[in-house]
Automatic annotation (TrEMBL):
Gene Ontology biological-process entries: amino acid transport; auxin-activated signaling pathway
GO molecular function: symporter activity
Lipid biosynthesis found in the keyword field: no
Protein name according to UniProt: Amino acid transporter transmembrane domain-containing protein
Keywords noted in UniProt: Amino-acid transport, Auxin signaling pathway, Membrane, Symport, Transmembrane, Transmembrane helix, Transport
Transmembrane helix listed as a keyword: yes
Classification via InterPro entries: AA_transpt_TM
Function: Carrier protein involved in proton-driven auxin influx. Mediates the formation of auxin gradient from developing leaves (site of auxin biosynthesis) to tips by contributing to the loading of auxin in vascular tissues and facilitating acropetal (base to tip) auxin transport within inner tissues of the root apex, and basipetal (tip to base) auxin transport within outer tissues of the root apex. May be involved in lateral roots and nodules formation.
UniProt domain Amino acid transporter transmembrane: residue ranges: 15-399
Amino acid sequence: MENNELRTPLTQRSGSSFLKACFNATNAFLGIGLLTVPYALSSGGWLSLAFFFLVSLMTFYTGILLKTCMDADPSVTSYLDIAERAFGRSGRVTVLIIMNSELYLVATGLIILESENLYKLFPNFMIKLGTFVIFGRESFVLITALVILPSMLLTDLSILSYVSATGVFSCLIILCSIFCVGAFGGVGFHGRGTTLLNVSGLSTAVSLYIVCFAGHPVIPSIYTSMRNKYQFSKVLLFSFVLTAITYLLTASESYLMYGDSVESQIILNLPTKEISAKVAIYTTLLIPVTRYALMLTPVANAIEGGLPEDYSNSKPLRLLTRVGLLASTTIIAYVFPYFENLMAIVGSIFVVLASFILPCLCYVKISYSSYRSWDYKVMGIVGIVVFGTIAGVLGTYSAVAELVKDY
């Protein structure tokens, strides 16, 4: 997990400073959700932002719970270790499946993201192979896969890691570019977004808000990399505040600019002739190219780790695994080009599990002897689990129903 979505912080075991830890943590949470949060606000209305703040508070608290779980056992250094410490080998395998499934779907979303933005720039493009013609967006899905292919064949992704770590700056560039389009591009902030609450779109909105805070699988690595671990709570608070403000500003300015006509990606609304819009679009185009291989490499490693020892180190088989993953995500992106539905499913299922439910269950399991009575902390944890479960079920149903309807 996209991590997730555009979440690949750089950490060093030698000890990260406070500022570097803040950067890594912010980079873990500030990512692809920036493009969909305006659509979330448009779907749910202004009052749905109450759920945005609620989600941010809950996920901040579950981040602290993960840190507490690690403090209980110094040998625990990763999310997988926390799950194994709480639930044994089965817990580790479960979390591994959840994390890799999220990464796989986020990687698929990156191809959709790239193809839709290229299609916006070149709407009349097509591929002709004799009498066979591939039109528009579908052609860019194939082109995106070909552009990404060389990065999937690399064994050293350190260069891409450093490029992808600029995600924070990319998001800030996109935020400022959207503002410039509204302020100087003739669009304006004329209050087009006037809906207070749209109950029918609330589940979609909440699912997309959840995607915005989906960096929990990398929290343990950030914590263990810190030089002064007692500052971790401040680091997490700083990253959450900066992330929430950036998301909130992007959603608000976009909704005021385009109202209920906000696209699944705000970039698709921007006029391509404006310089500031081009800056946002081209910045967005860099994201899939630099992040895709980083997203799928842990998935490929997990697959190779499950192979017999005679095959797991085979270079041809490793390349075949990576090309196969690229081909499968390309097929899904070609057949199901619904970015907002895919992200809603990611939020409703995988992020809910990794960022809401599992941190609470692991904490209760590891610290159960200290919390046998129903004090305020236990009640809060139960509340987070209940909220995550309800949001996950309703969000998944809504996203799948919308996907079936669109398809």
